[in-house]
Amino acid sequence: MKRLLALILISVALWAAGFVWFVMDARTPPPVAPVCDGIVVLTGGQSRIDASVSLLKGGYGQLLLISGVGPHVTLHHLSKVGQEPLPESLSARITLGRRAVSTIGNAHETADWAHTHELHKLLIVTAGYHMRRALLEISRTDPDLTLIPYPVVPPALDSPLSRPTIWLLLREYSKFLGAELSFLTGLPDGTDGLSQH
After folding, report:
1. Is 142 exposed, middle or buried (CB count within 10 Å of its CB: 0-12, 13-18, 19+)?
2. Cα separation, 45 vs 86, whole angstroms
3. Rounded to the nearest 5 degrees, what angle is found at the Cα of 38, between the Cα atoms of 97 and 94?
4. How far is CA 146 from the centre of its chain?
């Protein structure tokens, strides 16, 4: 009984320490981005789109994939950098990925897009709390890709954490642990997370 209790306490302590690390990691601002073959942004917030378009404009990638776009959303709706329409020369280098409906779907959409355009080094743009899971799923889908994280810190993480933000981080931490468990046990993902339309 004592061994069981000790094991539970150790597990709880490890879980709590992992969550503290996860929160600190999620609040880390992005580093200076290196130049890559392509840029991939996973939808979920306007700040992610703005950051990815700015990176494309800055020459940090040749092409940009916006993964997980709704069926009726256009590039005009998504691109609001400077509140000016994107020039045709820039918008022609942007692909709207409409098949992904989950992070696993983002991974498959990213791998397919990179293979189609013969890209090998990708700058991945998503929220800091989503980055670890996104990298894990993409690298599992295509281990040959070199992935460079460019985390975006949402406004909610810049200020003292509120209760809704803590719940969000707890959910994302749980999803990350679930993805890690799947990675360690080698459970197959198939093409779950992709729309059939």
Report:
1. middle
2. 19
3. 45
4. 14
Inter-residue contact 104 to 193 (CB < 8 Å): yes
pTM: 0.84
Domains annotated on the chain, with CATH: 2-185 (3.40.50.620)
Report for 16-20, 43-47, 112-116: range of highest mean pLDDT: 112-116
Closest CA to 154 of 141, 143, 144, 164: 164
Residue type, 74: T
Q: Which two tokens stand for residue 193?
A: 């997370």
b/e code 79-91 from CB counts within 10 Å (16+ = b): bebeeeebeeebe
Residue 147 DSSP SS3: strand
At 39-82, the pLDDT tens digits run: 999 987 778 888 999 999 999 999 999 999 988 888 877 766 55
pLDDT at 6: 85
